[in-house]
## 1
Amino acid sequence: MSEIKTIEGVDVRGKRVIVRVDFNVPVKDGVVGDDTRIRAALPTIEYLVSGGAKVILMSHLGRPAGDGFDEKFTLAPAARRLAELIDAPVAFASDTVGADARAKAAALADGCVLLLENLRFDAREKKNDPAFCEELASLADLYVNDAFGTAHRAHASTAGVASLLPAYAGFLLAGEVETLSDMLDAPRRPFVAILGGSKVSDKVGVIDALIGKADTIIVGGGMCFTFLLAQGKTVGTSLKEDDWVVRAGEMIDKAAAAGVKLLLPVDVKVADAFAEDAATRICSVDAIPCDMMGLDIGPETEKLYAQAIAEGSTVFWNGPMGVFEMQAFEHGTRAVAEAVAANKEAATIIGGGDSVAAVNKFALADEMTFISTGGGASMELVEGKVLPGVAALRS
């Protein structure tokens, strides 16, 4: 496979460089609540600034309708936060490819930064519209993609513009691809993969791919109940996907044939309602009451999973073990997070999404080797799919 071209070593002085970043951050009352994604882009932005580039940033935020400006989704708060984090002037354009963007891009001085307004205010972004791609490309001389979290989307800002300008990867995107690719191609063994979340249908491709690569696969979250059904157990009112029971059984058999340990819960925390104040109890997976639902793994499962995690030399985690957003059902996810953090000898990789939210909630992010910024993108890469935003950067 050809290598990704990175921005390192490229002469950017005096060049207008348009950079796809991921500033899809939480905003409340005009203030960025969590600036993790902005900080993640700083190495690339600062490298370009120090190299004398005229840096033009573009991003989406939220899910606007795509029919014009929407105050709820403006990137102005992100521009203000970036200005606080970086030692360079930061301007903000009130549009994306309109008169203000064109004027401010043309007037940009070396070492200065401009953030364009939300890409998704224009419906042409998600359609990878050729005219929109041309308008974005006309603002710059070079293109850099540093938004791994959107690299699995063939949008104008991730794929289209890359075909019109000399295109490179930023440090964040290159690091993500390298780390995840190395994990899959040459992991230190044993390789332990932890997969959670609500649905088997969302993870079937990932599980299939990892059966050929991992030594142990740990399954938690709502999707475990479909696997338990495949083993002939009853799961009460727990979340399940009846259409995927046979497929789950096939994956159990495939793992066994490949000599891969596929660990499922042995006990769960069940509740009489999907609510914080529900009545709960711990029960074996062989005795789930018909009128209760599993919302977390149980203490014996926590011990089983922690032991398997402790034995890993490479540990990859994507997806919570239960409804960790509710305090009553966070214990299993916390236990897994603590077990991953405790394995100091392993390369510990958090695969984006809710797992990142979990390690942040439990203040364990600094204990992990690598935290991916892209849940969907990391899953598609693990699954073996081509990411359009990455393919566009291959030399």
Note: The mean pLDDT is 95.
## 2
Amino acid sequence: MEVNTTDLMNAALRLAGLTAIPVDSDIMVPGKDIKKVLVGVDMDTAEILLAKELGCDCVVSHHPKNTNAAYADIMDHHIDKLVECGVPINKAQRVLKTQKEAVALNRHVGNTDRFASAAKLLGMPYMCIHTPADLISEAAVQKVMDEKLGQNPKAALKDVLDALNEIGEYKKSEVKSEIRCGAEKNFAGKIYVSMSGGTNGGPEVLKAYFEAGIGTIIQMHATKDDAKAATDQNIGNLIVTPHMASDSIGMNVILDEWEKMGVEVVVMSGIVR
């Protein structure tokens, strides 16, 4: 069976329950007859050159490299997640506004063509899969939380950390999950995993979750300001999981599927396999 870059992307979309390519994912350089792919969380010009040396037919990055200010639109997924937790949709849109505008401004000045142009010059098929993998990671971690702690109303943050550390990618990761707001003996309350939407929604989004009844938010990254704001709010708890290992959970599901399609997968650059 001959596999092309569209086949690889479609498999990722299907596994994530998506019907269209999100704005933070793309096939920048299409390719066909893909037999061997080099995959990492961040794949830049050096990794594209390495792929040539290793005899790979395609380079796949998890993090997007060529998106522009429109990347911020993927953050609207936070609105859906807030609404799912009981936040009115008009409030959800407002609390996201500050962080979304900041991301759009940062993306506007970026060199969006840097790595894609290198791949084109080298004739190397190149693509990125961000939201599909993040959605898979998010659902997988949420499932573990629901199954292990969902029936325990007095589960503490220590229990949350223990449950997270049983997940394969976290178990293998040198970096471990950390409590950024709260303490090990704090009751977790309702646990909600937020790992999609391009990036985290910022302090106002965290506050909206807490005010809606979420006791503990699990994210794969949070700034110092986010953690301080959550602490100052004094409402809920914040746990941050290892970023690379969190990305790897969803990526590994996709990579397993590609291997079933007959593609050899070589991993590097942050993938915990």
Note: The beta strands are 26-29, 36-40, 58-61, 126-128, 178-181, 191-193, 216-219, 237-240, 264-267.
## 3
Amino acid sequence: MKIKIKLAAVFLTAILTLAACGRGGAGQAQFDAEAEGLRIVTTIFPSFDFVRQIGGDRVQVVMLLSPGAESHSFEPTPMDMITLSNADFFLYLGGDGETWVPPVLASVFAAQGHQALAMSLVDLVYEIDEVPAHGHGHGHDGHDHSTDEHVWTSPQRAILLVEALADVLSQLDPANAYFFQANAAAYIGELQLLDQEFISIVAAAGRNEMVFADRFPFRHFAIDYGLDYFAALDGCSVETQVDPATVASLIQLVREHDIPAIFYRELSGREIANVIAEDTGVAMVELHSAHNLSPADFAAGVTFLDIMWRNTERLREALWQ
């Protein structure tokens, strides 16, 4: 395995104002014109929560993705474009999951503005096999290599993102730099506790295989914690369809390795998981990637840490049987 980590943030100085109409992506209030502080737009929940944990009451942050919506098929509305045009900073995922971003940047940010590409803040490139049902995280010469933008699913990678975001906010608002850095340090301490819990769970487990009967956003997580993974679909593209032969191979794997539980991701239809569970009788366990929250969880103020601590229990449930 080869890991390349690159910290980068691209800063510009002003934003165009657009005139348009429509509904905002997350159905949230738009920026308060009377409030002070940085105005931050994010596309998905992890970056939204990282910014609010670091920025506290010194920032306004809006998430474009509606709670409960599929992040990989999101398209911005005219109101989203207005929100973007009024932002000081735009934090987006990039990669295959946000192909709509480059043309938006070319139009909304045609003049000078502020932007940061989350995938560039922590750019991890793993050498792995491109075989969905046998994605075990080990690199081999002669196979296709790819990147995975879901860096936050590993607390170890989330720490790097938080460090980089704290630096970004500090440069955008130097008067509040100490506040941002102090909040980031406290938050990183919480992420480190989470990291140690995952390490302990895997170390004490009787097995280290993850069978993911769904799209798979946990490659970084599996590699960082030494887990072998077998997934029905590599990555999270909604355009990719599962191969029946892959499902059959996962069923065979579950039986041969006496796997007690299979995973599915949040907000999933569970179609593949249902087929495998019905055929093998194993339990189905949700592992939450934090791409997005249900409307109820979002309204209740559920955080990234809340989600990941739930995941510790679910991983323990699956690996300790």
Note: The beta strands are 38-42, 59-63, 89-92, 116-117, 125-126, 146-147, 209-216, 228-234, 261-265, 283-287.
## 4
Amino acid sequence: MRPRKKKHGDERREACQDIIITDKTQIKSKPVIIEIGCGKGRFITELAARHPDKYFIALEKVPDIIVLAAEKIKNENIPNVNFICDDVKNLLNYFGENEVESIYLNFSDPWPKAGHHKRRLTYKSFLDIYRYILTANGKIYLKTDNRPLFDFSIEQLSENGFTMDNITYDLHNSEYNSDNIMTEYETNFSAKGFAINRLEARLFPAID
């Protein structure tokens, strides 16, 4: 479903321009932690608040959605988050080799239709980008309620230079739930009884 156009959207985006990056020279420091597909910003807001010593960038390609996340960060007065309004395929316009500490993929579009698997954010072409920009011991954190996407992601990660651990098919009833930050989507769908799948992946071999 196409998001409804926000009232006064242009003015609201203009008010947030100081935290929306349009060029890689505006990135404050590296390595950086990024969330791909931040939605309305609940997750990145809480994550950045918990880790004020870290620097975060949230990517969202829909202008009328990213403004909601940016407004949340400004309203909470959280200084360690910037945003990029762009498509994930353009990540290399902003990040070079070994410049990203970790990547969060929360409830990415599962692209379930036949022939659409190459659009999934854990398809090989995207993993090639992540592998290039991640630091030597960099991590990918993945959450999804879509089991076919989760199984696909495990397969793609294992075939493309990543090793996985801390895998669960029911996050909210697992040992990993104590530190979990719920997204807006996660809150809604877990309330309806959907199990949440979660894993961590790192470049192989891992560096201690």
Note: Helices lie at 9-15, 42-50, 63-75, 124-133, 147-159, 184-191.
